Amino acid sequence: MAGLTEDRTRGWFRGARETTQLDLTTGAPAGAQPTRAIGGTHATVQVDRDQLPGVAAAEPRTDAFPAAEPVVRTVEQHLDLILAAAPTPDPIQLAVLDAQGLLCAEHVVSSRDLPAFEQAALDGYAARASDTVGATPEQPVGLAVVGESVAGPAEPSAIGPGLAHRVTAGAMLPTGADVVVPTVWTDGGAVHVGVQAELVPGTYVRHAGDDVAVGDTAVAEGSPIGPAQISLLAAVGRDRVLVHPRPRIAVLCAGNELVDVGTTPGPGQVVDVNSYALAAAARDAGAEAYRSGIVPRDRRKLVELLESQLLRSDVVLIAGTFAGGGFDLVQEALAQLGEVTFAQVAMHPGPVQAFGRLGRDGVPVICIPGEPAAALVAFEVFVRPAIRLMLGKRQLFRRTVQAVSAQQLLSPLGYRQYLHGQVMRHPDGGYVVEPVGGGESGHDAALARTARSNCLVVIDEDVTEVSPGGLVTVMPMLLGG
């Protein structure tokens, strides 16, 4: 059973399809041709993948919106459009503590030695290595204790042959000392100390510049800044650092049926959960999210709202159910500000997606389905990779595992299916996954079921059925992962 793997392509689970072609009841591959079912014995259907819907050529924009001919894209094609348009925010300087979780955008070189002076690595006695020759527990070497040093400001001191200086961890060593004898290797004397071990020069001594010397790299460009990097930046005297900033994501929700969380829904109304869920997902991905909530139902006010969000955001994310045959209020407002193309993406749930660039700066606008479970799936597939790209991350996509399906899974032919599920370790090794909403498409919408899930089960476009025991690709949904 495979472990966590990385997808380093700009597509989504490319190269994972062959792992779904195994019949675990026999251990034999299902063959080179696309297989319609995994596990068990099922008929095989010939599918010409070249005939799957591709990206239609863009037509010049007219007053008709959306285009008369529906655009159908694969998941990879829609994702590539979004990633290609993802802006790269200019690096900014932040206080080191505010830089936590971001990528360093400069090569930080130390202007000082760490440590800055010879110091004791632990509590004991600073001495000369030559004075410990032949020392054993049975025949300790006696030294006169002539001083004591603790960590902190101190006047320079020195020792000669036959002398020792009591020190604590981090204390400055006296001149002439080249070892620190741990207290447990002595009799602990205050005036005279018996050393019970022979030490070589440098034992338990931190030399100046041992950790970082002047001119050494403290934090390299592109390094993630965590607690260890923050401590090192502070140690070399940097209270501010240049970083790739968090992208600013504006989250809006459209729908006449929506009411805010503080309002009791009336007949036919539902609470706006998407603006909260998507803002939280954006923050978990590393973005600075602004929850604008439900869009106004007045066209002029909506255009003004969109214009203000375009000025303050790197990406505008809109969740809603949009008109299929004509165009609704949100689509009208978007059309007034630029071109956003609504397309059918070969995925389930939520095949209706949209993307465009609006405003003077061509800010990317991503429209995703309004159904909450579908909105979170669309965020994972399209928006989260874009956020990580804008953050400068090398790993855009979540790591995946191959897992055995605990039950039958059904999926529409020609669509990539994403099911919320629970993945767990099997006692015999590997992973087992079970969908939380049932194994059929369309049974994955309940919020409580989505909240109980810890992964997405991904079923390829050319698979319609996975039998119990079939192998599927699973994307664990680790917070902050």
Automatic annotation (TrEMBL):
Residues 250-389 form the MoaB/Mog domain. It catalyses: adenylyl-molybdopterin + molybdate = Mo-molybdopterin + AMP + H(+). It is an enzyme of class 2 (transferase). Keywords: Magnesium, Metal-binding, Molybdenum, Molybdenum cofactor biosynthesis, Transferase. Pathway: Cofactor biosynthesis; molybdopterin biosynthesis. Residues 1-10 have a biased composition (Basic and acidic residues). Pfam families: MoCF_biosynth (PF00994), MoeA_C (PF03454), MoeA_N (PF03453). SMART domains: MoCF_biosynth. It comes from the Bacteria. Signal peptide: none annotated. Coiled coil: none annotated. The keyword Transferase applies. Residues 1-35 are annotated as: Disordered. Its EC number is 2.10.1.1. Its cofactor is Mg(2+). Belongs to the MoeA family. PANTHER family: GEPHYRIN, MOLYBDOPTERIN BIOSYNTHESIS PROTEIN. Catalyzes the insertion of molybdate into adenylated molybdopterin with the concomitant release of AMP. This is Molybdopterin molybdenumtransferase. The gene is glp.
